What we know:
By secondary structure, the chain is α+β, with helices and mostly antiparallel strands. It has helices spanning 3-23, 91-95, 99-110; strands at residues 25-36, 43-54, 57-62, 65-69, 74-78, 83-87, 114-120, 123-129, 136-144, 149-158, 175-187, 201-204, 207-210, 218-221. The strands form 2 sheets. Strands 7-8-9-10-11-1-2-3-4-5-6-14 form a 12-stranded mixed beta sheet, with helices on one face. A two-stranded antiparallel ribbon has the order 12-13.
Amino acid sequence: MSAQQDIDEAGKVLARVKQTYDTASISFHLKYTYADADQPNTVTDSLEGDARLHGNNCFMTLGNIIFFRNQTYNISVFKEDKLMMLGRPSTLSRQMQLPSDQISAALHQAGVTTCRLLRHQKQTTIIFDYPPDSPCLQMQISIDEATYLIREVITKIRNPLTQENQVTTPPSGQNIMVKTLFTAVKMEHPDNSFFDEKQFFTREANVIKPAADYADYQVFLASPNI
């Protein structure tokens, strides 16, 4: 394929992916691993959890943190700190939670320089390269063409602790590889009760009362119009 054909084809595939995540009810296990990009098999840290998505709704546990989003509220629960943050949904909160929107945000912010498509059996891997001075250097997205669900995302980023943004090839240890693996992926029957904010809190007049499971949590209002 030519470069333009690759870009056009990648756009079509990602449009199908976005349509799937926007309309289906999906659950999956996800695991983030972190490594030096020059030593990708040596994992330095990891984080994992489970998620369920339905359109704009999201319920995700990641380590000791719960992220919840429905049409009305955006909720973050920090179990170790016994803190619950309530806000209104926003474009930013959606991008922080939904795989297809995370990818879309990264593609628009960094400025892709080249794009390649690799196909093996029924899996398509799209590889985006970015300018050498960009925070994101490369993103690889592996997609199951039978379902148009994301199976793996590998992102190479510049180490944020680096003092200078070099335009030449960085030394070992300057780049970080973040791998996100999606497993146990299932299409679920829609269940609106799964995304009911009452499992976190209820209202009594203008008073917000944490649900029984979070009775000893401090509630912080992240938006003025809660």
